[in-house]
Structures are given as structure tokens and as C-alpha cells.
Amino acid sequence: MQRGPDDLDAIRQVVNQVLEAHAEEEGGQRSQARAEILIHSMHVFAQRGLARTTVQHLLDAAKVSRRTFYKYFRNKMDVLEHIYRIFIDNMLLHFHQEMRQARSVRAIIHNTTKVYFDYHLSMGPVINLMMEEARSSGSALAPHRERAQRIAAQVVTAEIGRLTGRQLDPLVLRTMLWILENYSLYIFENGSFSAERLEECQRVMIGIAEAVVLGGEASPELLEARPG
After folding, report:
1. Distance CA 73, CA 78 (A)
2. Ranges for the HTH tetR-type domain (predicted)?
3. Which of 128, 130, 144, 197 is most exposed by smallest CB count within 10 Å?
4. Is 152 exposed, middle or buried (0-12, 13-18, 19+ CB in 10 A)?
């Protein structure tokens, strides 16, 4: 999957937004050189994979010097960890926004599922690399995955409890997040995006979530196989 100018602009907007928020929290200033390394590294990692990517590949893509690179990052894994943290922080931001806007449990299910897949789609094939790496217990990405899942499960569980009076075990939501992870890998299987798989995964995930959370109020047709 090749990145066009519009794709790169969308990624740049996300990266800059998160880095600016971090800079405000830390009382510092956002570095554009650092941002460009992160932005262009996503495409390199997606195309070459982690093992075949070198620091030189990242330097060439971002058009920065080795000295500039090591001013901000220790190595290529440090770059990937920062990209994953940006992905996580932006995802949690969108989840919180949906929680504030939703007026029903069904709206929470539909909107957060859409946000999850839309954001994964915007990141492109690099999402496969990051998610596979994050699921390795010894990876630097693993603690960020754990933190994100814990926060997301707590937020959604609390909001569902507020709207329904039911106190779901947070593990129920964690289980659905694990399903979503596998769906994310499925829609980019073999490095190629499938719109049909995306539609199927969204439909089935919404059906599963409604069946678990709403019980008899769920829409059974969401789980039925489509012709063809």
C-alpha cells in the first residue's frame, strides 16, 4: 500500500497533535525534526518490516542527519515505540470523546467500533507490525498495549454502568479489545487492505458487543452470514 500526499498529511496531523499535547504537559516545545522522523518512519516500517529496517533507512526517509536522529531517539526500536505511543494516545483520546458524546450503550458500541477501525485504517499496514510486536511480552511496546487496554476497558465499563446500571467485569471489555486486535490484523492480512473484511469485521464486532452488553436487545442479524 503506497502512501499518497493526503495519507501523509493525515498522519502528520495526528503526530503533530499528539506531540504538541505532550510538549504542553512537559512544559517544552515540539520538535519538527522529531515529528518528521516519526511520520516518515511509519512508511519505512510498513514496507520493510522491523528486522529489515535500519537507522539509515529512517534517516533517508526523513531526510535528517544521523546526529539529528540520535538527538531524539536511541535506535529504530525507540522510534517504533514512540509511533506506537502516539497511536495509543490518539486512540484513547478518540475513545474519551465518544464516551462524552454517546447517549446510549448502542451508540457507544457503534461509535467506538467505527473509531477503532477508522483509525487503524488511517495508520495503514504499519499497524500490523506494531500490534504483532506489542503482543510480545518482552517488547518495549507491550507495557503501552497493557496500559491502553486497561484504560479503555475501565472507561467503557464505567460508562456502560452509568447508562444501564449493570456492572460488567472489565475483563469482558478486555476480551472484546483482544478480538478487535485480531480483526485489525485480519483486514490487513498479507499486507493488503480488504474493504470486504473491514465491513465484515465491523458488523460482527458490533453484533458480538451488542449481544454481550444488551442481551435480548441486540440485533441478531448483525451476526448472520451475508450471502456471497
Report:
1. 6
2. 31-91
3. 197
4. buried
Boundary of a domain, candidates 76, 103, 125: 76
> Cα-Cα-Cα-Cα dihedral of 179, 193, 90, 37, to 10°?
130
120 class by beta-carbon count within 10 Å (0-12 exposed, 13-18 middle, 19+ buried): buried
Q: How far apart are CA 97 and CA 150, in angstroms?
A: 17
Whether residue 112 contacts residue 98, with contact meaning beta carbons closer than 8 Å, is answered with: yes
Range of the domain at 148: 77-223
The per-residue pLDDT for 179 is: 93
Is residue 133 located within the same domain as residue 172? yes
Q: Percentage of residues in the chain with pLDDT exceeding 90?
A: 37
Q: What is the CATH number of the domain that holds 208?
A: 1.10.357.10
C-alpha cell read off for 84: 506506537
Residue 5's pLDDT band, with cuts at 50, 70 and 90, is very low
d(CA 117, CA 188): 11
Regarding whether 91 and 48 lie in a shared domain, the answer is no
Classify residue 217: in a domain, yes or no: yes
Residue 190 binned pLDDT confidence (cut-offs 50, 70, 90): confident
The model's pLDDT over 71-123, given as tens digits with 9 standing for 90+, comes to 999 999 999 999 998 888 888 888 888 888 888 999 999 988 988 888 777 77
Q: Which of 48, 58, 18, 39 is nearest to 125 (CA)?
A: 48
